[in-house]
Design a protein that fits this description.
The chain is built from four helices and no strands. The chain has about 80 residues and is an all-alpha fold.
Amino acid sequence: MPALRSSAVIARGARRRFSPIALVAQFITRMVAPRRSRAALARLTDAQLKDIGITRREAWSETNRPFWELPERHRW
């Protein structure tokens, strides 16, 4: 039984630590993904926008958001 207990302590204490380079790469990835989505939205035709229920004005508004405004930060 002590072996299980020690492995549980090890598993609980083993936290994932990221290097500064990995954190910067993750940050850049989080910034690039919305830009790609917004660029794809800008390329849609009026018929395609109508299919997804968005007007050209709403699409324009979304594509012209600053890069630092991430989707999870939007206040709809």
